[in-house]
Amino acid sequence: xxxxxxxxxxxxxxxxxxxxxxxxxxxxxxxxxxxxxxxxxxxxxxxxxxxxxxxxxxxxxxxxxxxxxxxxxxxxxxxxxxxxxxxxxxxxxxxxxxxxxxxxxxxxxxxxxxxxxxxxxxxxxxxxxxxxxxxxxxxxxxxxxxxxxxxxxxxxxxxxxxxxxxxxxxxxxxxxxxxxxxxxxxxxxxxxxxxxxxxxxxxxxxxxxxxxxxxxxxxxxxxxxxxxxxxxxxxxxxxxxxxxxxxxxxxxxxxxxxxxxxxxxxxxxxxxxxxxxxxx
Length: 280
Prior knowledge:
Blueprint: E1 3-5, H1 6-9, E2 17-22, H2 27-39, E3 45-50, E4 59-60, E5 66-67, H3 77-90, E6 94-97, H4 131-145, E7 151-156, H5 163-177, E8 181-185, H6 204-210, E9 213-222, H7 225-232, H8 239-243, H9 246-253, E10 257-258, E11 261-271
Parallel strand pairs: 1-9, 2-3, 2-7, 3-6, 7-8
Antiparallel strand pairs: 4-5, 8-11, 9-11, 10-11
Helix pairs in contact: 2-7, 4-5, 7-9
């Protein structure tokens, strides 16, 4: 599908607020840093709602005291919130940190065991034991993001199949059913390097198909690579895991291009309907 310009395809003067759903504390900068820069010169301000920002839920020890578990190999949420505050202030962006825990800390309401215990489980469809959380998230986001006037909702589409991104995408579709204008953004860096995520190639069409959606328009927004890299640089704890170093980050930001320019891509969608077979 040929991409057109995001800058001219959206009636920006008619929009009062752009709400960007960020599953984790770096996703808005990673995937929409160019959009945040673009909106800084527009009347429609951006509100980034970062969702999985909470501390790990406390658990009881055998003696009844509480402790906060920290899973080995993962950065403390408090430090990640500090990084995000610095990035949002640097981009002059309004933001909200919700207190939902990351999937690695969510527990089954019936067994109290971790829902996503193993790595491969975090790159798959949401589990039944997580459905209560999904419903709660929908109710919270409906209250926060709807009834803000003329609003554009911008959501991940779930490229890479990270379970938290998939949940947010599904909730965004429910918000669109309540009247929100919806654009999907490409989940970066999964869209350019599948090895960072599940290791399986994925792309926008596949991600949309999993949501029972089909693309109706692809919108490109040119990106100032140095400026976006500087914004992402506030998330110092994440760069080694995602890009190895700053050079790797700059290289990844150059991959998705349109008209010879590095771009971010946003997608309008329609309901995916099965092809009706003619009677024989």
